[in-house]
């Protein structure tokens, strides 16, 4: 039984591609919230960050920009309106979305923690 589990694990690691997310080439954008746009966004599998003042904030990469242009969805670049990725001070409020985080933001913070303290922290993905 142990050999079978080891074989399956090895097979998955060798033959299934592992994709790392490129967090340094992502941007935060906002789009106006209306029914048509929200419907298109939900079909696009984007990393939705939050909703505020009738705008939806999204974390996007290069391929996501292409999807938005293909669907004719106008957007505003918002990256520079938020705190930088590496803050100089620790805040009790957490990241750019207060105490709440998107899954990608949480993953990014856990990987940064692992990089900083590799001798005591390890991030596992299921």
UniProtKB/TrEMBL annotation:
Protein name per Swiss-Prot or TrEMBL: Uncharacterized protein
Organism (species): marine sediment metagenome
């Amino acid at each position: 039984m142990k050999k079978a589990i080891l074989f399956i694990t090895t097979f998955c690691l060798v033959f299934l591609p592992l994709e790392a997310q490129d967090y340094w080439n992502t941007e935060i954008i906002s789009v106006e919230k209306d029914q048509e746009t929200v419907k298109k966004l939900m079909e696009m599998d984007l990393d939705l960050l939050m909703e505020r003042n009738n705008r939806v904030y999204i974390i996007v990469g290069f391929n996501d920009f292409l999807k938005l242009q293909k669907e004719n969805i106008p957007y505003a670049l918002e990256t520079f309106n938020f705190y930088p990725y590496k803050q100089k001070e620790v805040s009790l409020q957490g990241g750019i979305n207060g105490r709440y985080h998107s899954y990608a933001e949480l993953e990014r913070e856990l990987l940064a923690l692992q990089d900083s303290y590799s001798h005591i922290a390890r991030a596992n993905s299921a």
